[in-house]
Amino acid sequence: MSVARTHDSLAEVPAAAWDALHDGGNPFLAHAFLEGLESCGCLRPQWGWTPRHVTVWDGGTLVAAAPGYLKQNSHGEFVFDHAWAHAHARHGLDYFPKWLGAVPYSPVTGPRLLARDAAARRRLLEAIVDDARALGLSSAHVNFHTAAEDAAFDGRWLPRQDIQYQWHNTAGWPDFAAFLGDMDHRHRKNIRQERAKVARAGATFRVLHGDEATDDDLAAMHAFYFETFSDYGNAPALTLEFLYHLARTMPRALVLVLADLDGGAIAGALCLRGRDTLYGRYWGALRQVPGLHFETCYYQGIEYCLREGLARFEPGAQGEHKIARGFLPTPVRSRHWIAHDGFHAALEAWCREESEVVDATARALAGRSPFRATSDAT
Length: 378
What we know:
single chain; alpha+beta; 11-stranded mixed sheet; 15 strands
């Protein structure tokens, strides 16, 4: 008979057993990534993150697992439920803490219910709900799960959807020129002009994997990241120790794009690479150069994907401006278990209405594609 357990540290779960439950195609699910967030000081209770991973064991064999956290706020989730929290408060109910199945700070689609088979996956969801009930939690949430996991959720888990902007090489472009060639004249000209501004400024670029980056390169990238978060008044959660950890434990998954000017790095983008996807995560700059953001965060990433044969580039959440640069609207998913029957019923209707709005928005945004109508990219 299977046994469910919870863990307040991923270090309690053997790395080999955890990683045996996924195919390694998504770097954010790696034990090294998730455990590194904990051991390198990126998750702190005062920031609302307390690890509570759920696992299912058959004897001494791990058969299912979900990265999970008790949340005291909705910071760093990118699936917005502030209205839900306010509604609970207006009725004298506590919304926090809640349980969240996700990758912290990472609005990246990937497996969330790691399991040996469908039966183990169902048992895992039962264990998540059982633990939420035992703790008296208002809710449990699974953010940015894959379409393949839809079938695991029963009707008590409310579905939500949103839109991200992603680059997909559906046309089989061999290089950047071919990619531009499928765009209409106006968008093609705009991208060429943006890239030309950066080139005229004298900026050059280095794309480095973790095992190619020096300690100074990693420190520079962290400084860019720190500067961006500080400028917006947010706490920069990722530590320099964590970047060193990624470079050491996931060297070919870590990808840095560094922009150099006047003998030193002035900007950078931190990315992670999966089997067929590049994930853009953070960027920062110490100097303002026209077009530098687009070149560092988008065009260098697209060129990397084309060189490396990657099929997809996910540059991060939000940003309709990405459409004009070849990143088209793509649906993303989440599921939500609500303990209170009355709130479940009310939010079920709310989610249906939201889905209709998102569908209509996606259709409208698709009409803004920069690609010519005859292009396979459309």
